[in-house]
Here is the input.
Amino acid sequence: MLLRMSTLFLRTLREDPADAEVPSHKLLVRGGFVRRAAPGVYSWLPLGKLVLENVSRVVREEMDAIGAQEVLLPALLPKEYYEATGRWTEYGDTLFRLKDRKGADYLLGPTHEELFTLLVKGEYSSYKDFPVVLYQIQEKFRDEARPRAGVLRGREFHMKDSYSFDIDDEGLQASYDAHRAAYIRIFDRLGLEYVVVSATSGAMGGSASEEFLAVAATGEDTFVRSTGSDYAANVEAVATPAPSALPVEGLPEARVHHTPDTATIRTLVDFLNAAGLGRDFSEADTLKNLLVKTREPGAKDWELLGVGVPGDREVDLKRLEAALEPAEVALLDEADFAAHPFLAKGYIGPRALIDNKVRYLVDPRVVTGTSWVTGADETDHHVLDLVAGRDFTPDGTIDVAEVRDGDPSPDGRGTLYTARGIEIGHIFQLGRKYTDAFAVDALGPDGKPTRVTMGSYGIGVSRAVASIVEQSHDDKGIVWPREVAPADVHVVGTGKGEQIEEALRIAGELRARGLRVLVDDRKGVSPGVKFTDAELLGIPTAVIVGRGLKDGIVELRDRATGEREEIALADVVDRAEAACKA
Ligand code: ATP
Ligand code: MG
Here is the structure.
């Protein structure tokens, strides 16, 4: 490949686009890699297309290596398939919907479980046909509520989606493991720093779903990692280690105190400390009870649920939703309180909940033998020294208190801190949700049908391009990892005639050695502009053919390290080739 900047369809910009906030958005636009066509919709120009193709190639190679087979399904899909699985409704406003001339409903595919399932059902029917893994790299459409950050969150974007079909759970696990390993190879090759976090809490049995997050301060996903190990997890999946139970013998008896105007933890603690009770109280000594209501899927009625957490922590609503999934959860409103007069708002304690058969779950830290200040179920009253396991027995634990920086890591090594990331991949053991919807069976050796089980696996290909830039840039521009760079080497001729001729000659030789070459052969463009462009475009190796040429000297530059070296013209092709293959 030899690209000449004198004719390349490229205009770099000196100014950041007005709508850009994150570095990848600014740099991909300024470097002429992409152009915005509509909110969340982008065109890929020649250099951008090369990068996109390089990422796709890496993905393809690693998918092929696990035996996955590439196909290409339509993006324009009839409504009926998505209606069969309920997703026509479930997807809500995120789905792009349209009608054909006869008035039939269509959608633009946001992800393709339905069509892949039907495709396999149409072709395969015997256990001998399985397992099979199919994938495609294709544009996806989602009418995102907040398209943002250029191609990071687009409304049209490129995704690699694959789907595994197996006849049993062991097969699904093997397909999942193969994908997981392939994803690790892909993201390693793309030069990304990333973590793998479980997307669901351990409750569903280990790694039913995991996300790959590229570490980036600009990411929308929060996760926690440990100072002392590789531990990383979604906040929803962090399991708080439970301390050991303590003996209850000899602990003071519980007693009710009049605590006027102490409906908040802060006012309560201040009151207790001013009351001369002979000890100091902190928020962590209190047990705060949050009342919510939950509704199981398909159920008509809501049920009350009490959640007890140490008073120095809030309940994290995302963790709560994840812990109760698939049930819905909502906070109580005034009408709910009115309907349950035993709930003394601001003073709710375990007693009234247990006596009134309200399910009561507590934080894992509330173990037997721990002693608490908590509501006495009467306005302006609290109970002190209420001991778990002695004075009340909750219905179980629920791990939904906020996770804080400095909390012990669940693996016992180091402490947790919060970081941000960009979801670049997601692997998911779907099970039989879609094969049930479409009755996909494989006939066993005995002629009996078995329901096929599925996995689905996505990589945001266009998002990966932006994620790479988020992680790999400096104040001058992009620093492409070699595997995805639009070229291996950028030969810059800076002078009038002779240097450009020489640059073209060197470029030709480098191409003959199999390198992908970009050559700046523009006439009437100043050296300063050419250097600025070279740094913005971020090709890993540059050869500068400038004033030194008359003395037989050219310069070799490394974009990542900034190193510059003057070398003899006679050595330039060998040295540049070596640098590109290092
Ligand atoms: P997010 O939580 O970021 O919206 P998602 O969980 O909805 O993503 P999936 O349905 O898991 O996304 O899609 C698979 C992959 O496609 C994601 O891991 C991500 O890398 C990519 N992706 C999803 N939505 C977008 C988008 N709007 N723009 C670019 N890439 C996307
Ligand atoms: Mg996802």
Q: What stands out?
A: The chain has three domains: 44-238+418-470, 255-397, 478-581. Residues 1 and 540 are 16 Å apart (CA to CA). The two ends are 19 Å apart (CA to CA).
